[in-house]
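Work Package 4 report. The design task specified in the project plan requires that, given a folded chain encoded as structure tokens, an amino acid be chosen for each position. We show below one input record used in the internal validation round.
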């Protein structure tokens, strides 16, 4: 039961909501085990969610089944800042791909999503969108060298990008040379499927472009934030990007 000490009620409610929406068959006992709490606590949390309007049905007893009402639809979608940015970036990349299959309505989906944001959230999202660039697809000779970057590196880089925090990286060049850098991740560029960071490099005291999949380690420096530079400052760093 040690896990129950690390999960707040808010965290538990979010997890129960996600489990209920998954469509998988669940019992109160399953949920209690997943959360590391007693069945009584799980039942109380489910009752709170019902009071908040989530149409959860639960049978009585320890082994009672838990499910959403069959006629429950998508309704309102609640996303946090990071999730909203991820989704909008994915939509933008899909739109730019030019594929007509299953993608005809992406523009409308994106507009509806943006329209659902609060003014404060919309302002933050627009700021981030202005820092994401979608370019042409990567040339074939780069694809043979490409390996998807590690999930933990992507997550840390993403957060530093959102927070405008400097990061310390270990970077490997195309020639296999390794170096330590401290960079400011100002913009991201997708040359599908390869992502690049358009950054200020403290070592070179100049702008540089780094391939995300060539970053082998990364540590944030949250106390070292930066002021965003104009995108025009990075034009020279994009020269020869097809050979990086």
């Amino acid at each position: 039961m040690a896990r129950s000490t690390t999960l707040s009620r808010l965290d538990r409610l979010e997890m129960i909501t996600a489990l209920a929406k998954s469509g998988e068959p669940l019992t109160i006992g399953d949920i209690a085990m997943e959360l590391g709490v007693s069945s009584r606590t799980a039942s109380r949390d489910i009752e709170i969610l019902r009071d908040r309007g989530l149409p959860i049905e639960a049978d009585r007893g320890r082994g009672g089944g838990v499910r959403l009402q069959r006629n429950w639809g998508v309704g309102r979608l609640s996303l946090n800042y990071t999730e909203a940015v991820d989704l909008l970036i994915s939509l933008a990349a899909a739109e730019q791909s030019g594929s007509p299959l299953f993608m005809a309505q992406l523009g409308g989906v994106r507009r509806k999503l943006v329209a659902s944001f609060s003014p404060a959230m919309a302002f933050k999202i627009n700021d981030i969108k202005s820092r994401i660039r979608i370019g042409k697809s990567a040339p074939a000779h780069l694809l043979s060298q490409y390996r998807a970057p590690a999930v933990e590196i992507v997550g840390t880089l993403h957060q530093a990008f959102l927070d405008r925090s400097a990061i310390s990286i270990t970077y490997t060049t195309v020639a296999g040379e390794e170096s330590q850098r401290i960079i400011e991740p100002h913009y991201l560029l997708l040359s599908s499927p390869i992502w690049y960071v358009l950054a200020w490099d403290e070592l070179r005291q100049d702008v540089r472009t780094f391939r995300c999949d060539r970053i082998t380690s990364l540590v944030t420096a949250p106390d070292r934030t930066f002021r965003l530079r104009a995108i025009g400052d990075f034009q020279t760093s994009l020269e020869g990007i097809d050979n990086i």
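The longest strand covers residues 178-191. Validation will be extended to a larger panel in the next phase.
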